[in-house]
Amino acid sequence: MNEPNLPGPCAGYEFEIVELHEGALGPDGALRVKTHLDGCARCRDWQSQYAALDATLARELPRPRLSADFGAMLRERLAGIAEPATRRDLRSAAEREHDWMLRDLRRAARRRAIIGGAAGATVAAAGLALAVVFGPEAASLLQALDAGNGRAALSAVGAAAAIGALAWSATRGVLPGVRLPG
């Protein structure tokens, strides 16, 4: 049916040939694969190589030895899985999960506080650095702002800072005096 000089079985038959060899293929599938094997030398050759390799491995590989109490231990574990949990066990598991969640929430709150503190310190340090750098020119800057449009410029800067602070608070789920859901 297919080219006999290609290595391996025909596309789509490798797993089915293995399942046929292991007896895991249903009657309809087995009949279909056997019919294909009757007409395909390539797949027949691959099946015989697979069967020989399987027999060699079964003969040569060491068999694992189980401990004498393996059966009893397995039955005990299966009984533990199959037993319905008691109310006490369920409560204990729920309390452990609750404790883990509280611990994780506290860690997250600490992390946010540390990051917020670091951000505040960075802003304060930047403000201080600006004050040191621009301190001598501050008087002339204030005089320039005082004339005409200076108040409008300062108002715009203040409004931008307030909007930024509100946006930052909203991303944290808190607005001054309002607790946001979520």
Q: Looking across the biggest beta sheet, what order are the strands in?
A: 1-2
Categorize the overall geometry: elongated
Residue share in helix: over 70%
Radius of gyration equals 38 Å
How many distinct beta strands?
Answer: 2
End-to-end CA span: 64 Å
Series of secondary-structure elements, N-terminal to C-terminal: HHHHHHEE
Note the beta-strand portion.
under 5%
Contiguous uncertain segments of 5+ residues:
none
Largest sheet: 2 strands, antiparallel
Secondary structure class reads: mainly alpha
What does the average pLDDT come to?
77
Total helical elements? 6
Overview of this structure, please?
By secondary structure, the protein is mostly helical. It has helices at 14-22, 27-39, 41-60, 70-82, 87-146, 150-171, and strands spanning 174-175, 178-179. The protein has a two-stranded antiparallel ribbon. Helix 1 crosses helix 3 (41-60), helix 2 (27-39) crosses helix 3 (41-60) and helix 5 packs antiparallel against helix 6. It is elongated and about 100 Å long.
